[in-house]
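queue> holo job accepted (iron/sulfur cluster)
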Amino acid sequence: MMSRTYYIETFGCQMNKADSEAIGGLLEEEGFESTELPEAADFILLNTCAVRDHAEQKAYSYLGRYLQMKRNSPRKLIAFAGCVAQKEAANLVQRFPELDLVVGPRNFTALPEYIHRLRTDSGRIVATAGEEDLVDATTPRSRGADSTGQGWVTIMVGCDRFCSYCIVPYTREREKCRKPADVEQEVRELVEKGIKEITLLGQSVTGYGRKAGFESDFVDLIERLDCISGNFRMRFTSPYPGDIDQRLIGCFDELEHLAPHLHLPVQSGSNEILKRMNRRYTREDYLDIVEKIRQLDTDVAITTDVIVGFPGESEEDYQQTRELFEKIKYDKAYIFKYSPREGTPAAEYEDNLSQEVIDRRHAALLELYEQGAEQRNQRHVGKTYEVLIEGESPKSSPDNRQLVGRTGHNNVVVLPYLGADLEGEFVNVRINKAASYTLFGEPVEEETNFIAARAVS
Ligand code: SF4
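queue> job finished
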């Protein structure tokens, strides 16, 4: 049989990355081989993200490039998939007549069948009304060369929260959870393959199993996964602050494999704005969680997402976000400028801020965050951590080769080059310098077991 090749371009979050791995697995079962060169691929799929306008526009620009390749090589098939495909199916068909396939997230499992139909019939396919998610434990996975010791495990899809700015509940629909036994099976297989870091994925993971009649909640699930033996750590993203209780907080002290890192998206420091965002917690609830985390024996890194310039955000609301940042000093913050997503309630709000105000607030909050992170990162200097090596640093040069990896706190660490065979392995590194975004260190012989790596060595 003639070999066929595929290329997947992934946009957006880790959930999309996990979906792309599963799509790759499905294609490989059908005899496709992956290629890193889109020019060489018989089938190109763009797995898109609708959360931010920037990622959506980028996907269109890549699509233009791949359609140009198809003009020179008409047998090449091009698929536009994922959340933007789901949301914009009708427009895509009109706007890009050469596009072969438009496929929503709940139709991914039928991709081999669509490709077969495209090869045998003329015409194009638009498939966005499916029911099946890529969350079945039996879905084959394709873990490419970029999966350096890391495995992404989707535990649930969809979201029922309806934050007023977010398109996800409309593109990914209602929450659906995988069975705990299926999640456990996938994690076990990854650990047996030597994967060192497992990230549990979901739009709102801490809501796992909260629907009536489900056999297990999120804490039950991570306790179950913690019983798997092996040298690995696990983290999860994204949690919802309104779900975090003392039982979950206690896991950071109690579970052996849980990485000391909590990504806690705040979105705004103002109760008024949180209400308009339909986020069901208050600033006080949020600060209470942070205080309880900081009282643990384990030093847990706290990271966040925040939106500046949400419609109606007054100077006072913005100052409340700044105060929160000053108080917490996040280990890492992803600061986004509000951009409306058509189809969400917030896109209908009329009190939008000028771009100038949004840009100014964004720049000032970024500066404040960087100062706080630099101060907070100093606590790592002199300590030894287990660092999962991701590969050679992009800043490496022939006369100064460097490796880059991550600690359990999710800090990026740069260290001297020790060899390519360490990719995907743990190396003990003593930190000797800390900046806002990066730690710098030297490999050391001394033992640092996992517990030492999460707290103090
Ligand atoms: S919790 Fe809110 S922001 Fe997160 S996916 Fe659900 S609706 Fe979107």
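queue> Residues 449-457 have pLDDT under 50 and may be disordered.
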